[in-house]
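Treating backbone geometry as a discrete language has practical consequences that deserve illustration. Part of our work consisted of pairing the sequence of a single chain with a tokenised description of its backbone. What the numbers capture is local backbone geometry rather than side-chain detail. For completeness, the protein is quoted in full, as a sequence line and a line of structure tokens:
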Amino acid sequence: RLGHDLGFVPLVMGATITLYALSLLLSGANMQGLLAPSTEVLFLLGASGALPVFEYGRWWTVITAGWLHAGILHVFFNVMW
């Protein structure tokens, strides 16, 4: 029933879409452009980069940033891949 991947692919796809929807809901009216979450929300949800890692000591963002997406096209292409 789970296929050859034991349900991993649907799990990743579902988590990706769910977290993207959550980031849009948390952004509210502060979205950037066409269906892109706000920078503040992405930071709170674990966006990575020099500022979060080195200035705020959020080393775990190197891992969590892989689940965040900057817009609808970004999510679409990642899920399709």
Summary: The chain has a mean pLDDT of 84. DSSP finds five helices and no strands in the chain. The two ends are 22 Å apart (CA to CA).
